[in-house]
Amino acid sequence: MSLPPLAALRAFEAAARHQSFKKAAGEIAVTPTAISHQIRLLEEALGVRLFDRKPRQVVLTQAGQELYPVLRDGFVSFANAVDAIRRRKTARGLTVSVLPSFAAKWLLPRLPDFQKRHPDIHLRLHTSAAAVDLASGVVDAAIRYGRGPYPGLVAQTMFRETFAPLCSPMLGIQSGDDLCNATLLHLDWLSPDDVTPTWERWAAANGIKGLKTSGGISFSDDTHAIQAAIAGQGVVLASPAMARDELDAGLLTMPFDQHLDGHPYHFLHTGRGTNRAEVDAFADWISNQVATLPTAS
Description:
With 297 residues, the protein is of the alpha/beta class. It is built from eleven helices and ten strands. It is elongated and about 105 Å long.
C-alpha cells in the first residue's frame, strides 16, 4: 500500500475543514505557503486538483470532496486512539491477587464503594487459589488466608475466618441426631493444617458422637459446596461470612451456634513499588470495610 506523505494529508484535511490555507496554517503552526506547498505535493501524487484556488478563497473540487470526509474520519480515529493510549499510560493502576471464593463472596459486592471513592485507580483482580510471588511484580498486593508469618511483606490482618454447619432450611436440621442422619458435604483444602475445618474437628469440639464423617460429596471450591447446600444436597461446614447473602435471604440456615475458628485473612504487599500510593489507598479502604463488619467476620 502506497500512501502520500502524512504531512500533505494533514495539510489538506485542515485546509478543507477551514476552507482556508491561512486558518489551516495557524492550526498546524506553519506558514500558508507551506500549506499550499504540501497540497500541491498531494495533488501531484494523486494526479488531480483538490482545490479550485480563487482570489479570496479555496473551494474543494469533486475529488477534494470525495477525499475530505475519509481523511477527516481517519484523523478523528487517530486522535481517539492516541488519547486512549495516553489515558492508559497515565492511569493509576493496581493489581490485587485474591482467592476466587473470597473475591466472589466478600470483595466484589463491596468494590463499587472503592471505585466511587477512587475513580482514578484502575483496579485489576487476579483471582487464583495459588499464592503469587509479590516480589515478581506480577501483582501489587494480595489477600490471602493463612496463619502467616509472611517474611519480607507488609501484612495487614483483616479478620479471622470462622466455620459452621450450613444447610437448606428444607432439610429441617435442628439437632445433632438430625445431623448424624444427613449427608455431609466436604471441602478439599490445598494445604490442610491443624486448624483446617473438618467435620471430625467440629464434632469433637461440640461433643457430637456418632457423626459419620466419611462419604458424602467433596468439593475443591467452597462456592460450589455452598450451592450444593442451597440445593438441599447436604450440610456444608463453611464460612458464614462467605454465605452472608444466602443466609440473609433464607436460602441457607445455620442450625448450630458452635463455630470453628480458622486462620485470618491478610492484606499483603511489599511496601515498595511505584504505585505505593494506590496500594495504601486500597489498604485503607480494606481497613474501613473490616471496621464496618457486624461481627469479627
